[in-house]
Amino acid sequence: MKNSLVYLLLIVCTIALSLFLPWWIIAPLTFVFAYFSKLTPASGFLISFGAIALAWLLSIYFVDTGAVNILLGKLFKVNAFFTPFIAALLGGLVAGFFGWSGALLAPKKKNWVNG
Amino acid sequence: MRKYLGLITLSIGLVLLYFLQKPHTVSGNPIPPLGKLLNPYSGAWQNAEDPSQYTSFNLNSNQVKEDVKIVFDDRMVPHIYAQNLQDALFAQGYVEAYHRLFQMDISTRSPDGRLSEVLGEKLLDYDKKQRRLGLGYAADNAVKGWSKFSDQLKNVESYTAGVNHFITNLKPKDYPIEYKLLDFEPTEWTNRHSALLLKAMTQTLAGYEEDIEMSNAYRIFGAEDFNLIYPDRNPKDTAVTQGPYDVANTSYQTHAALLQTELNLPSTSRPRSPDGVGSNNWAISSSKSATGKPILANDPHLGLSLPSTWYEIAITTPEFSAQGVTLLGMPGIMIGFNEHIAWGETNVGHDMMDYHHIQWTNEKKTKYHFDSSIVDADIKIESFQVKGLGEVLDTVRYTHWGPIVEDATDLALRWIAHDPAPTPEFMAFVDGMACNNYDDYLKATAVFNSPAQNFIYADNKGEIGIRVNGALPIKKHRQGVMISPGTSSDDGWKGFILRENNPQERNPTKGFVSSCNQYSANEDYPFYYNGNFEPYRGRMTNRLLSSRDSFNVTDFKAMQNSNYSILAEEALAVMLPLLDSSNSLHPQALGLRSWNFEYNASSIYPVWFDHWFKTFHEMLWDEVYTKQTDVALPAPDVWVTVNMVESVERSKFYDIEATPNIETLQELVNKSFATSLLPEPATFGEVKNAQILHLTKLPAFSENLLLLGGTKHSLNAMQQTFGPSWRMIVELGDTPEAHVTYPGGQSGNPASPFYKNRIATWASGNYDHILLAPKESDIKTALFSITVSNEK
Q1: Where are the domains of chain A?
Q2: Residue B268: pLDDT band with limits 50, 70, 90
Q3: Within an 8 Å CB–CB cutoff, is residue A64 touching chain B?
Q4: By the CB < 8 Å criterion, does B678 face chain A?
Q5: CATH number where B640 lies
Q6: Which pLDDT score is estimated for B754?
Q7: In-domain check, residue B16
């Protein structure tokens, strides 16, 4: 339950904040989320990775009808279909590492969130 | 333990973030800042353009006096409706930046020697060359000259304000994709940028000289052979103007001192102007026209690029309504038409770039002999802020003549590009679009200085005309063919030919005017000039236009797309009969005998001919080509070869020096034929492999067109990367009708459906049929519109 809530909140916050803040806001965002929601290190990585990757994928399909996919595919010499996933992977990795470290660096004893 | 692991993962995260935020080079390959480029919110995906989602918007600017409406038609061509000229030019600046900002940025950084600022060290040598040629200095001089014409300068200022209105309101997420890829930001536009653009044009179109090569050749071959290999004029040429020239003979009768040089520079060290730059234009009078009104055609040949060199635009004010194309960065319309007239340009190949030999008086090369005294050189320190490297300095010496381009040579460059403009030159394309008669058009274009152009004109009252507009230096006989001495002011140009004495024709009895980069005047013209002139397209145009009494727009389209080569026709006429019995029965000889001299993409004959002719040409001039590895020598012109085979039976040049026996012409023809046979048949289109590259040369943003006909010497002068960058035909009349095409699209955004949507039409030789839209309601289908208003 907690994990799903964090996951959803992360997606919403990523999309909302990225509209006016630089793309790397996902780094402090996932760190803070993982830190305060007391995720386990594994879910700190996975939830952050998954949330940001999905947020990015959704955002990409929202803004582009395919032309940029094709262009980036040519640029990086990969199938155009995969380009949003490459982006999602990069965003996810950044988020994952910050989420992981947030979870690891959070104080162990004190319980910040009920549950 | 957990804490350490936390710090380690945090560090990995930070390193990853750093890597994604900065550009890198991995084993020589540049890697863009991937995070900036690939994130959905400010990266490349923001450059997506959904054609079903174009929406109109409003702008506020205190720079406009009254409301301006910009309507983009279904071809994405902006139609500007303004109440006065300056408001219109503000809108022009805005839409050009809106569609082509990166192109404007790069094409002005290039002459200014500022590419390494944003692209790094690999561009530093290029930048240094540009600065040493004095292009930035030239732009400074131009701006200084322009400041004397404050009334006219307002037009450039309005244009500049329009560009800047776009730039200052541009959010990083909306930067053109190239900025995201290369990781830099647009900077403010100034009037000097427009001047830089004009100088870049001068470099492309009047950046030709072979002074060092010619001096070397003169020294090596001696006067007699030099004149044979490198004659000044092709006797077969049909000049742009045929005279009579109503000019008192004011040319110097003296011959220029021909300075021999001991310089042995390899050819590769010289900055060269690109081969293949040129253009066609012609206009027929009412009597020769199927419509009973003049028809005008123009197709400028330039390096083809994406985004395209040209931007199509329409401007309407209460005074005029005009449409055509503009070079990005200059106000006005360069090639186009309005309700009454049509106009266009081709390049004038006069040599405007002469090197003078400097005699230094000290080892540090700061003082030199000039007019019987010792003069200080101006020392200019050029500073380059190289990305990733910091500041790099270069010292350039400026003399009476101009800059020392290469320190090792002691040669100073006298170049028309450096001259401060004596007139508001930018007005030629601003005032030009408002003219409705030839006298006004001549007045409007008289201000144009460089690069000199054959301005062609036609109107719906029936007038046609052509005039060289540009400053043409007055020279002694053969002055500037090779390196000139530099110790006396008498070694230089003696001012400029008065504009009314420039070569020109108005309503000639032949019923047409034309120019294709050939000589601008015939031998009766009293002023000496030399330069780089195209030997076949001019003759082809004049041959075709003289061949019939009546032409229509279909004929003109066929002419612009003609792949016929007079070079092939004339060369084969004399070379094929010289083949001996065994060679003449060879399939390649039989094929060439049946060939119609058309350089069609699907044909194999042009490949065979080109290969044979090149081999023959280089065997004939082996005396030149074998020496080129050691010393810079000019390549003999192809027409010299053809004329020689036609009229000279015996010559020592027919001998191949490397062989023990003495070859005859017939042996040379047969030998070149036998050695140039091609076993693998490939079509001309495949061999040429035409392509249109993006300014960054990135294949992903470029277009590879495999099969295109045309050659340097055919009217469709399509080479591998040079060719017809805009084809326009205008039928004058009560309402003008135009047929236009160009290899690209209106948008500079590679992700836009309008980036290269017009290439297919252009490549197949087809045109868009367009009409003026003097009223907004004339535009039947609009994509969207922009309203600029001044709401204080």
Answers
A1: 2-105
A2: very low
A3: yes
A4: no
A5: 1.10.1400
A6: 97
A7: no
